[in-house]
Amino acid sequence: MTITAFLTYALALGIAGIIPGPGIAAVVGRALGSGFQKSLPMLMGIILGDIVYLTLAIGGLAVIATSFASVFFIVKIGGACYLLYLAYLFWVHGIKPTEVKKGVGKREGIATFLAGFAVTMANPKTIIFYIALLPSVIDIASVTLNAYFVLAAITAVVLFAVMSPYIALASKARETFRNERSLKIMGRSAAAILTGTAGWILARG
User: Fold this and answer.
1) d(CA 109, CA 42)
2) How many domains does the chain have?
3) What are the pLDDT digits (tens) for 111-169?
C-alpha cells in the first residue's frame, strides 16, 4: 500500500468518525456523568470494535464473524445493561464534580470498555464503513500484514483524535456548571443519553 492509500483511509475514517452517532452519544453521556478520565475506557472499547471490523473486512472472515455472533451478542447485552446501570446512577444520585479527577477502578474500567465495544459492534455506521465503503477506499487484496498493522494504528489514532474533543467538551461542561440545579439537569441528561444508547443496542439485538 502507498502513503496516499493510508492517507485516504485516514481521511475517510475521520469524516465517518466525526459524524455524531451512537458511539459519540455514549461517550458524551459518560463524560457528562463521570468526566474525561472515566470516559477513556469507553473510547478504547469503541476503537477496538472498529479494529475488529477492520480485521473482518480485510480478512474476509465472514465465517468467523458468524461463529462469534453469540459472543458479540452477549457483549452487546452486557454493555447495554451497564449503560442502563450508569444511567440509573446519574438519574438517582446525580453528578458529583469533586469526583471528576478520581481514577477509574479496574472493574469499572473493564465494564466501561466493554460498553464502548458493544456500542461499536452494534453500530450500522461502522458496519457500513468497513464492509461496504472500505473496499472502495483501499485495495483490500493489496493489504499485507505490515499494512494491516499500520491501518490498525491509523484507526486508533484517528478515532481518538476525532472523538476525544467531544469527551473533553462534555467533561468541561460538567466541571463548569456546579450549582445544584444545573448538575441535576446534567445528570438527568447523561442518564437520558445513556438510556437511549442502551435501548438502541438492545433494539438491534
Assistant:
1) 8
2) 1
3) 889 888 988 887 777 877 887 778 778 888 788 889 999 999 999 999 999 889 888 88
Backbone angles phi, psi at 154, to 5 degrees: -60, -40
Residue with cell 470498555: 113
Phi, psi of 67 (to 5 degrees): -65, -35
Domain that holds residue 128: 3-203
* Amino acid, res. 172: K
Q: What b/e sequence results for 133-166 when a residue is b if at least 16 CB atoms lie within 10 Å of its CB, and e otherwise? A: ebeebbeeeebeeebbebbbebbbebbbebbbeb
Cell of 21: 452517532
196, 193, 203: which is closest to 90 by C-alpha?
Answer: 193
Cell numbers that stand for 98 in this block:
469533586
Count H helices, E strands: the chain? 10, 0
